Amino acid sequence: MTARLIDFQDACEARRWRAINDAVMGGVSRGGLHAENGIGVFGGETSLENNGGFASVRRDPEAFDLHEHPGLQLYVRGDGRRYQLRLYTDQLPQGAAYRASFQPSTGQWQRVALSWHAFEAMFRGRRLPEVPALDPSRITQVGLMIVDRQAGPFRLEVAWLDAC
Fold first, then answer.
1. Using CA atoms in the order 34, 37, 39, 44, what is the torsion angle rounded to 10 degrees?
2. 13 phi and psi, to 5 degrees?
3. What structural domains does the chain harbor?
4. Alpha carbon 102 to chain centroid distance?
5. Taking Cα atoms as reference points, which of 52, 51, 54 lies closest to residue 42?
6. Full-model pTM
7. Rounded CA gap, 85 and 74, in Å?
8. How many C-beta neighbours within 10 Å does residue 124 have?
9. What percentage of the chain has pLDDT greater than the value 70?
10. Measured distance CA(49)–CA(151) in Å, rounded
């Protein structure tokens, strides 16, 4: 049983996402999300200057009770770089997230399935020890991030996100 959570065919979807880049820590990377022909495009350029190196976007908060699903599935086309799907809950301190990494092939649409066990609690690039496992009934926000210690342009196309 799948449930469509995010679909960029919805003309309003891209407006629900906000950029949070390394400028918050003095970096100069830039990134954001916009729509192109019914596809969400997370793109920009990462820079390692000023100890930077990440770009991210977060969707407006929305409660997702997904306890009946074993995980999430994205339909994406990448550029060969490594990305993170980030999930925010009230289980972690503010700014911390559960993250799962994925690296889609260059230029090919593919489904990326992530079980709840693939998500680990992180805060500012460090794993949080001794925190509860992700509770899928408590997800309040979804985000995407690139933080692969490479400078240069990036582009991740996202068609949809499903609970699967």
1. -40
2. -60, -45
3. 3-163 (2.60.120.430)
4. 10
5. 54
6. 0.96
7. 9
8. 9
9. 100
10. 9
